[in-house]
Structure formats: structure tokens, C-alpha cells
Specification:
292 residues, wza like fold, Outer membrane lipoprotein wza fold like, six-stranded mixed β-sheet, five-stranded mixed β-sheet
Amino acid sequence: MKVLRLLFLMMISAAFCGAQKESLIIGPGDLIHISVLETKDLDQQVRVEDSGDVPLILGGKAQISGLSPAEAAHIIEKKLSDGNYLLNPHVSVTVERSATMNVTVLGQVHAPGSYEIGTPRTILDVLALAGGLTEAADRMVTLERRNTKAQIEYFISNSSAKALKDQPLVLPGDTILVARASVVYVLGDVGHPGGFAASTNDSHLSVLQAVALAGGTPPNAMPSKARLIRKTENGTYLEIPLPLSAMQKGKRADIALQADDIIYVPFSYMKNMALSINGILAAAASASIYRF
């Protein structure tokens, strides 16, 4: 019977450890519950001190700040066994309430701010609390841990199956930063002029992709006179002739765009000559940003 009881306790302990693989990291001020399977007399609910220690009923104090609940349980087990209080103790630790219950979401979300979460949540769940990504959001999202300051990058794929797979868990106190995606502008005689976030799975757009997102060029447009406006490292702008008509016909290779590039397709030759680069830049500054 003793052997069966020991096996039973070992199975329960393993279950506790496995269940807490993705648990919170314990920090000062956290309220934790300590359970000793061999005797309920040693069970306690206690708050972690500012020093990171937790006072035990037996065994003095245990330093558990910065540990997962499973790791903290092993520390307490060692305290009990080293002090000869129990021969082979089996301890479980759970975080009843984290001292920092909020998660902060910053950047390109519809409602940036601080949101209360009592337990770990998936990153998509937390982004949904903040209203989801804006039209100009980068799909590469950065998650920073509260205790370790470690940064985890997660790419929100256009494929729903990939986006839902292997999501990192957001813990209370963590911070999520959604940066602004690279944006290119397609202006002039196109179906839907404006700015377009590079929301492809490789976060890049080409000339033909951008023009297609802008609704293409109507019959009266002059794609052969298109221009590419590109900002240089010193802050000046280059105006580059863009053989868009030849590219659309497959006679010229497509071109990869850089962040903040501007494609301008003129309505007519005279308008193309009259519109200055400053006018194009002003139009880009007031353009709506679209996402696909």
C-alpha cells in the first residue's frame, strides 16, 4: 500500500509540474498558495516579500522570486527534506494573484493602454482586448517579459492556421509593442490612391503589388510616365522614372519597394509636368492608410 501511495503522489507531482510548464514567473508582492501533498497542515497562502523570499510554516524562508511555480515547488521541497521535516515531500505552488495584474499594449492597436488579466492569455487574446491591429500595424509583434525583460517576437501570419499556432502566452505585467509597418504610397490616376501597409507574410511590397492594391490604372492613365519618389539617407528625395507600363506588360522586371516610397501615376502628360515633387509629398502626407 505504501508503494502504491508513493506512486500516486509521484504521478500527482508530475501532473503539477507539467501543468505549470507555461505558468507565471513569481515576483515580489505575488500572493501564492503552497500545497504539501503529504500533509494539509503545511498548506498556506502567503505573499512573496519584497526581498523575493516567502516565509514557510516549516523550514524558514525560501527565495522564489524569478522562478516558475514548478521551480519554486522544488525549492520548498528541498527546504522540507533538508530540514528533516518530511522524508520525500511533494509540493505544488500556484499564483493566486499576481502583484502586477495588468498587461500594457502599445503602438499600432486601436485602443492602446493597460488591461487587467488575472491569468496567462494568448497574445491574440490580449491584442483583441486592445481592439486589434490598426491598418498601419506591423505584423511582427514584440512581447517583453515583466521580470526578465526578455523579448519575444511573434509574427501574425495572414494564414489563420499559422497565426493561431504556437502563440506565446502573455503574463500579467508583460508589455506588448506593435510597431508601425512599412508603408508605400500609390497616388495619382489609380483606383484607390493612398498608403498601403506592407502586410504580406514577408513584409515587403513590389511596384506591381502596390499598384494592384491601389486598384490598378484606368485606361486614361499614363503608367509610362509614372514616377517613383524615394527618400535618401540624408533626408532629400530622388525622383526616378518608373517604367510601370512596361512592367505591367511583362517587358520589365518588377521592383521591390522601400518604406515610404511613393509611386505617382499621372492623369495626363500636362498634369504630370505641372505637379511638382513637393505636391506629391504633400499628397502622401495626407493620404489614407489601407491594410489588406
